[in-house]
What does this fold into?
Amino acid sequence: MSNLSQSPIWAWLKAEQNRQNDHLELIASENYVHEDILKLQGSILTNKYAEGYPGKRYYGGCQYVDCIETYAIEQLCQIFNVSYANVQPHSGSSANLAALHALIKPGDKIMGLSLLEGGHLTHGSPVNFSGLWYTAGSYHLSSEGLLDYDLIMEQAMQFQPKVLIAGYSAYSRTIDWVAFRKIADQVGAYLLADISHISGLIATGLHPSPAGYADVITSTTHKTLRGPRGGVIMTNREDLSKKINSAIFPGTQGGPLLHVIAAKARCFELCQESTFFTYQKQILLNAQALSERLQHHGLKIISGGTDNHLLLISLADFEFTGLDLQRALERANITTNRNTIPGEKRSPQLTSGLRIGSPALTTRGFKEKEMVMIADWIADAIKNNCDPMVIADIGVKVAQLCHEIPLTRPWFV
Ligand code: DSN
It folds into this structure.
């Protein structure tokens, strides 16, 4: 097939474009990128092999990609106030894989928040490399769904991890890095901060930074940071920076994706513009508006609210599951994901929670007024047990709102 427009791939791309425009995107880890990010990711940089690091490559012809990667590293160090960075990880999972590979040996102990309570697969889940290759233990939230640092100290003292991991996929409160440093010091562990979800808030000073407390910081670049899909690793320790570089290449990856690294560099530039601070502020206001309005309807939010971009609705008191609600909202063109909650009694496939986040809709231009409307619709769906008539009615309102505030991010088809 010589013409892309005749390929089914083109039709699926157009269909996905329409889906993104016609749906309310509430998945906390998704966002809509700037057109420069799309441009750079689709650029001729994809043609270039550059195994190694700037100035020390295993291929010729790297003079320009060296400039791009060096610039990306400098920009990232500036934003997060760190001395060393690696911008080659293909994803957040790859970043965590390399960080652990740099710090410890297979069989050593790691400890993160339980996946069921908001941790991440790569923080020690038994079905992931982190739980299969390392001896993994979990710490747990308090009964209110909060990090309880005395409790974590106790759990860490008992388990004695070599790496303590902080940073989460479904935790809506501020993380106290000073308390985590204290716990890590007490048990003689490295502190690994995975800031994938909150890196945009940290970059703009709206959440405390782990820099100066964590030995190693990992992140994705596509969530609140609003860049291309990918990962990064940062540290202030020269000894660890060398180990991290070796752990990425040749340890766990081959050639870096220079088209993605260029897009990361552009993302880091955009993060330093004043509009990015305004955007992050609005993310917080929007998440709070969602949380307050849902609680106004009598719904339970885990931990009682949110300090960041996401919140977790508890469905423990309802007969339908997180999966039921996710599917019902999807029929009304509201995209969310089901999530386990602390004290979960259902399977991870079904769950008793729904995670929602504000980054993507904030990019779309939505403010508190729209968040209140959306919270009303979600509450309607819940209180009416996902009744098909109610869901159909919500779908009509969603279509109207998407029409009134279209996605003005660049379109490429
Ligand atoms: N799966 C991502 C999330 O949705 O939070 C984290 O990797």
Notes: The first strand starts at residue 24 and ends at 25.
